[in-house]
Write a structure and sequence with these properties.
9 helices, binds magnesium ion, 10 strands, binds adenosine-5'-diphosphate, single chain, 238 residues, ATP-binding, globular, Carbohydrate ABC transporter ATP-binding protein, CUT1 family
Length: 238
């Protein structure tokens, strides 16, 4: 279980500042939904937590430990993207074992771990298939499976369901909720779907133009939006 603390975080690409003084923390096991219009900086923030983008200024701490200059592989964070990025020539089993293989985990342990996670996600019958032989929902499950076998400290999701049709999106939403309840890992979940955020999150971070507008429980965000932007974006009554 891990905590996340982000203080006075800024990010510039050249002269353009895309994240402005972000302060955000997550308790151990918390599910934070990060929402806001396209281009507001959600993916950039997630990439900085994962270590895929450098920090311009400010601090990112995991379990109190400063990770600003730590390589992605040392952060022990799993990221699931919108595009599933499964290796097309590898079977589902190989896709799931690849990360463990790279870390030198013994084959028997890899297999045990794959069986466990596959059972949890109900993808056991798919283990020998290639990604091309899977539906969108199945591919998404495999992508999550691949993140889970690494038993990371923290999960980052970047709009994982936005490529799926409405029915499947709702189904997967409850799968993700169940999964979070089962493993209890600290999660930051980017979505542009307000309902997804409301149903999944313990707290919601609403961003606009690189500025964190409000960070609060779904109920507080809905009942007491901090400003007109939050009220409008989250569809609150005010
Ligand atoms: P979101 O995920 O909320 O849609 P992004 O984090 O992808 O937003 O982008 C935030 C802003 O940063 C956008 O204006 C985008 O064009 C810009 N941006 C993102 N990545 C880069 C980059 N590598 N170089 C320059 N600008 C970038
Ligand atoms: Mg994005």
């Amino acid at each position: 279980m891990s905590t996340l603390e982000i203080s006075d975080l800024r990010k510039s690409f050249g002269a353009v500042e895309v994240l402005k003084n972000i302060n955000l923390s997550a308790r151990s096991g918390e599910f934070v939904a990060l929402v806001g219009p396209s281009g507001c900086g959600k993916s950039t923030l997630l990439s900085m937590i994962a270590g895929l983008e450098s920090v311009t200024s400010g601090e990112i701490r995991i379990d109190g430990h400063l990770v600003n200059d730590e390589a992605p592989k040392d952060r022990d964070i799993a990221m699931v993207f919108q595009s599933y990025a499964l290796y097309p020539t590898m079977s589902v089993r190989q896709n799931m074992s690849f990360g463990m293989e790279c870390r030198g985990i013994p084959k028997a342990e890899q297999d045990r771990e794959i069986e466990r996670v596959a059972a949890m996600l109900q993808i056991t019958p798919l283990l020998n298939r290639k990604p091309g032989q899977l539906s969108g929902g199945q591919r998404q499950r495999v992508a999550m499976g691949r993140a889970l076998v690494r038993d990371p400290k923290m999960f980052l999701f970047d709009e994982p369901l936005s490529n799926l049709d409405a029915k499947l999106r709702i189904e997967m939403r409850s799968e993700i909720k169940k999964l979070h309840q089962a493993v209890g890992k600290t999660t930051v979940y980017v979505t542009h779907d307000q309902i997804e955020a409301m149903t999944l999150a313990t707290r919601i971070a609403v961003m606009n133009k690189g500025i964190l507008q409000q960070y609060d429980t779904p109920d507080e965000i809905y009942r007491r939006p901090a400003n007109m932007f939050v009220a409008g974006f989250m569809g609150s009554p005010t």
